[in-house]
Amino acid sequence: MKGHWQAFLCALQFMTLIPVRLSGLPDAHTQARAVLYYPLAGGLLGALLVLTAQALSGLPEGVAAALLVALWAGLTGGLHLDGLADSADGWMGGLGDRERTLRIMKDPHIGASGALALVVQLLLKWSLVSAMIGGSLLWPLLLAPIVARAGAQVLLVTTAYVRAGGIASHYIAQVSRQPVLMCVLGVSLLLLLSHPIALLLAAAVLYLLRRAMIRRLGGMTGDTLGAGIELLETLILCAFVALPLT
């Protein structure tokens, strides 16, 4: 039981800036087990967003949405946004070449494509969150981080990791495929009951993202994983706003 609790805390530490205290430096086994708890970490993040949205109910919709998006980025430390920006720079500047793409993605400096991707992503999130606040539709803020991290689980257990010295290179081989996929199935059923079209869209986008990673890089990196999380979060919000079922 203690091992699972440590794994959950490790998932929180990796996926968010929520302060947690581990019993020690997590080893590769704990980090691999933590993958199972990524959606749960997303659920805690989403719950904080919903609670904050309710607390900001007296503010104008645009202001409340801006504060929520800022909180969303702050709670994750901008980790996934950084991955999105690096991936955009690599894809545009790599000119179809694998090594050039990886080299650009590793560069800590942000380029024009990365900056544009960040602006568009944050603007989309702000407009979608603003629309949800206006329509008193807050619970997709809980669901989107969960689904996006389940998508990250799919990538982790089905796609090769191409950086030998990357952030996940020392533990990814130890991730247990079956329990992770069972977790993904549970999240998929939750999304199916909530918004079947959103499930189809998420599956299609995840498939296309994985195919693009394999064709360009031969697999995934931490940056493309973060980009996938950001894109899936926005997709889920967009589905609930643009394709309401009621």
TrEMBL record:
Write down the top EC class of this protein.
Answer: transferase
Topology of this chain in the membrane: Multi-pass membrane protein
**UniProt catalytic activity:** alpha-ribazole 5'-phosphate + adenosylcob(III)inamide-GDP = adenosylcob(III)alamin 5'-phosphate + GMP + H(+); alpha-ribazole + adenosylcob(III)inamide-GDP = adenosylcob(III)alamin + GMP + H(+)
Keyword annotations of the record = Cell membrane, Cobalamin biosynthesis, Magnesium, Membrane, Transferase, Transmembrane, Transmembrane helix
Named in its record, the pathway it takes part in is: Cofactor biosynthesis; adenosylcobalamin biosynthesis; adenosylcobalamin from cob(II)yrinate a,c-diamide: step 7/7
Stretches that traverse the bilayer: 34-51, 63-81, 126-147, 154-173, 179-209
One Pfam family named in its UniProt record: CobS
Where found, per UniProt?
Cell membrane
Name the UniProt record assigns to this protein: Adenosylcobinamide-GDP ribazoletransferase
What organism does this protein naturally occur in?
Marinobacterium alkalitolerans
